[in-house]
Amino acid sequence: MGKGKVSNSSHNESNDNETKLVLNIYDLTPMNNYSYWIGFGIFHSGIEVHGKEYGFGAHDFSISGVFEVEPKCCPGFSYRCSISLGRINMSSSDFRAFIENLASDYHGNTYHLISKNCNHFSDDIVYKLTGKHIPRWVNRLARLGSLFSCLLPESLQATRVKKVPEYHQIEGNETLSTTTPSEIDETEPENPLLSPKDGSVDINFVKAAPSDCKAEMP
């Protein structure tokens, strides 16, 4: 579903559908400055496609925890490096549909440091698009399992996004604000990549595609 064709072409013909696939990696703790060199660390990652970066974070509600930011600028983390994963042949609109459908599997309240974290999300995107995986060291902490989760500071137990997504239609444009669980309505229409209402919020949430639309995807 949604798999893009990996391109290795060196010809000069223009192809508007072709785009870089990049893994952007961030430090969650200054400890990484020391542990990184022995192949260990606590990282956040996001996937850059068509000039935007997509990540997964925790919140308390059964709606999408997938969000969009400017590449290498994910708030709350310290950018470390980028890894080029080649190029894919997939239009911006096709990728938008792909990420909306994927978002329905990544609700904010399902985030788990060991079993379903931001790096699992990045790996899922890469595998679905290319059939390959992200480097193992990026998510090594999760594979080492619960033995280490109890040693982490509480602040690292979840990659928590700053705001909880609520969708509003105002003068034809979708905006974002915080909300309580009883106010959430997942039937609000259209444009799932939203701009925040509050100027201090610097992430855009991806609203998951409705389940009936997901079922129709090839």
From TrEMBL:
Q: Which domain of life is it from?
A: Eukaryota
Does Hydrolase show up as a keyword for this record? Answer: yes
User: What does the record list as GO biological process?
Assistant: protein deubiquitination; proteolysis
What does the record give under GO molecular function? Answer: deubiquitinase activity
SMART domains with a match to the protein in the record: DUF862 (SM01179)
Keywords associated with the record: Hydrolase, Protease
Region (Disordered) spans which residues?
A: 170-199
Q: Does the keyword Protease apply?
A: yes
- Biased composition (Polar residues) is annotated at 172-182
Domain PPPDE, chain residue ranges per copy: 19-156
Q: Which family does it belong to?
A: Belongs to the DeSI family.
Q: Could you identify this protein by its name?
A: PPPDE domain-containing protein
Q: Which organism is it from?
A: Gossypium raimondii
